[in-house]
Specification:
This protein has five helices and eight strands. The protein is of the alpha+beta class. It is globular, with a radius of gyration of 21 Å.
């Protein structure tokens, strides 16, 4: 039997946060579709690099910034070798240009694949990516998260022209 107490509804007013919330939720993205700020953030999470998401300013996208003793520094391994290079060595990722067969033999491509061994012998080869940095970053991310990654909603919007669409999204 249901009592009057069980049917009584209590209304609660939402309590505003003391300071703005950095994350408003997460969305699942397939690894081979990760690019731009979402990929940069996922790399930081996989590599154990402390980052903070800063809100967009002047029509830019929200971005991940590395937290250092000197303050916040942009973290963009998908576009900057200075950020990606140490990851290449640490994770021992093999990068190869995609090659395909044409009328005149083997032709090279602008697209790259990454091959990585992790977790006691697991192996992963990325789908061809728009460049070697994106392929490298996806290889690092798979070691921690597998094929699906939860990223903050504010980072999951389409990247600006500096981050071209992923090859997987174009297929």
């Amino acid at each position: 039997m249901i009592s009057a107490e069980d049917t009584e509804m209590t209304a609660y007013a939402p309590v505003p946060p003391a300071k703005p919330q950095a994350l408003s939720g997460f969305v699942q993205i397939y690894l081979e579709e990760l690019d731009g700020p979402a990929l940069d953030w996922a790399v930081a999470q996989a590599a154990g690099i402390k980052v903070q998401i800063e809100s967009p300013q002047h029509q830019n996208l929200a971005r991940a910034y590395r937290v250092t003793s000197r303050g916040l520094i942009p973290f963009r391994p998908s576009t900057d070798w200075a950020h990606a290079g140490p990851l290449l060595r640490e994770y021992q990722v093999a990068l190869n240009p995609e090659a395909h067969y044409g009328d005149e033999g083997t032709e090279t491509s602008e697209r790259w694949i990454a091959n990585i061994y992790y977790s006691g012998g697991d192996q992963y080869t990325t789908e061809p990516a728009r460049n070697e940095l994106v392929a490298l970053c996806r290889a690092v991310v798979v070691t921690k998260f597998g094929d699906w990654v939860s990223v903050p909603v504010e980072l999951s919007v389409a990247p600006e022209p500096g981050y071209p669409r992923t090859d997987a999204a174009e297929l």
